[in-house]
Amino acid sequence: MPGMANVPVEPRAAAQAQRMRTHWLRIAPGALALALFLALALGRGVLGAVASPLQGALALALLASIIVQPSALARMRVTQTAAALAGILTVALLLRVWGLRFGLPYFEHPDEWAVAEEALRMLRTGDYTPFSYTYPTLYTYMQVGVAAAHFMWGAGAGLYRSPADIDPVPFYVWARALTAMLGAGAVALTFLAGRMLYGNAAGLLATALIAVMPAVTGDSHYVTTDTPAMFFTLLAFLAIARLTGVAAERTPSDDAPPATAPPILTQAFLAGVGVGLATATKWNAGSLVIALLVAIVFAARRSTRNGHADALDGDVALRRRNLQPLTVNLLTVALSGILLGFTLGVPFWLRDLPRILTDLAGIIAHYRFEGHPGAESDQPALFYWWALTREGTLLAWVCLGGVALAFLRRKPADVLVLAVVVPAVLQLTGVKVVFFRNAMPLLPFLCILAAALVVVAVEWVTERPGETGDRLTGGRASVAFMRRLAGNRTVLLLAATVLLAAEPLAQAIHDEALRARPTTRILAGEWLETRAQDGERIWLEDNTLILVPRLRAVGGEPAVHHDLAWYREQGIRFVVVHLDRETGAAALAAFGEPAARFLRAGERHGPELAIFDTGAPDAAAEPRTPSGATLGAGAIVLEGYRHPGRAQAGGVLSLALFWRAMRPPPLDYTVYVHLVDEAGAKVAQRDVPPLEGRRPTSRWMPGDRVRDDQDLFIPETVPPGTYRLLTGMYDAATMTPINDAGPIDLGVVVVER
């Protein structure tokens, strides 16, 4: 009706509608929780394929219904700092979990096994004594917990029945995820440390820088101790900073209210526990003791000054007398904390102290005197500077400027950070072995100092907006705009963040995209899988590929030790060569052009590989001694065999059997090979399914021809002489032979010494 749009809604109706909305909001979490409970209880048995999507949707809906509750919204206080921090942490986490399956099932990082395999061994055997103390044991024990959680997940999925069944590949993904979480946690701790020392702006800037540093994001993908050491070093430093009482002056933009500090002795104890835990993660984190000593001196002076401000005013002697016992008490409590934290991470340290000292001496000798081929430098300081510039050239110079500012300014916060930076740098530059990953615990503190320098520079500019604007514009008409820009602290800080983080972020994205791609090994393995037949033998040089179970790996030594004719005779069609090794182009030239090359070319990780096709003939065309013996009532025919007729005692007799399926065999049979003397006594024996089980006989189809290599080991105890070689098949379940005319005679073999 005309004019009805202007009629106001009745207040009573509006109130009723509001009450209904509040009512439905209040009961929504309970209703959704009930629905989720029913979906979980019914599971796939009732709901079928929709069970998992439905459960996930209900869980998300339940979370949303809790968040939109009026009481929850009232408690949520989203600030600019919180929003910026959430964004940075999201980017940091994404960079650290992107490409987490990097390289698997190959382990491209040389040190992952030291932690991951040790954790698996401990879980499988129940023996928690480490084999070595090259690395402290805290992170290994944490990975034991990850392995146990992974096992329970696998047991629930029907994959595992005992810890011995754990598949290393999915476990490594779980183990790497813990490192990634600690890496993201270290980013958050960097913010807390930067904010505590230099304020919100410095904390956010330092967080943004450490979040995108390529080396830091990359190291978070591996089951190694460097990223965990960075996390626990920052955790300990926060406790040390609280003990010191060093805090940035608060500004109106700082969001969090100041926290009430616990008693000073409690702070010293917690700082000691943090130092102990950090040292239990990686030995070089023990240099945090220096920062702890500096903090104790600061704390004792502050406590003495604050507690006796009136009585001690002007009485230096009395102040010193009160300072000394407090310092001793703080040292004692801190040492107790260190022992507790270290014992939590390395529980057998007192019992195994001789082993620990021996391993530490070995590490020192390795880093200082023996060296590490490919990772040595006579100028370690220049190496680490070069490595830092690769993280970002501008960032490296600003980090250096931040260190210089801290030395020149020497505020308590500067001294405290330098107490971490200086010992760490001297550790790294005092040895000949150089690995940039050893600098992981140092990098957050360099970012904090860089952020402090930027904040000082921005404050200097904003305090002189007129002078700065005139200098930048040279008196042109845009002076007013430049003055406003130079006076805007937030804009300048954002601009500095973009300038400093742009290069590291671009490099980090490039590196993570590279990790997400299949490595050269994965591509080479896929190439072979599509071309090799079940049970086919592939010659692999050492540290090249892991074959799928249906293929057989042979070799291990350099491929050039044999010529093409030898590979053809052995029935080896594909030879995989490691091109990064000094095999020699001339030696490889005899193999001709590779069938495939897998190169890095800046586009992927992994060793450079080549696969050669030797031209080995098909099983039907290979030379052999004819046989014609039948098995399984004619289901299988031994068309022929080949062996050299001579063998050394203690050596191997190469034997190739050529089978042909006439009709599908009903069962999986085992091949036996016997070497017998004149009396028929066995002197050597082999019982292995055809193709080592890679191609069971039950899968043979009529017309299939199979070359089956059944190389026989001749014990050293076999005396020289002439022996007969016999073969056949049997059903391993019943031990029933299936030869139609008894053992098949493969001729004589002369055994020599």
Automatic annotation (TrEMBL):
Q: Which organism is it from?
A: Roseiflexus castenholzii (strain DSM 13941 / HLO8)
The protein's predominant localisation is membrane
Biological-process GO terms, alphabetical:
lipopolysaccharide biosynthetic process; protein O-linked glycosylation
Ubl conjugation recorded as keyword? no
- Transmembrane parts of this sequence: 81-99, 138-159, 171-191, 197-217, 229-248, 268-298, 328-350, 383-408, 415-436, 442-461, 491-509
All copies of domain ArnT-like N-terminal, residue ranges: 172-297
Q: What is this protein called?
A: Glycosyl transferase family 39
Q: Write out the entry's keywords from A to Z.
A: Cell membrane, Glycosyltransferase, Membrane, Transferase, Transmembrane, Transmembrane helix
The annotated topology with respect to the bilayer is: Multi-pass membrane protein
The Gene Ontology CC terms held by the record are:
plasma membrane
Any one GO molecular function term? mannosyltransferase activity
Q: Where in the cell is it found?
A: Cell membrane
Q: Which InterPro entries match?
A: ArnT-like_N, LipidA_mod_glycosyltrf_83
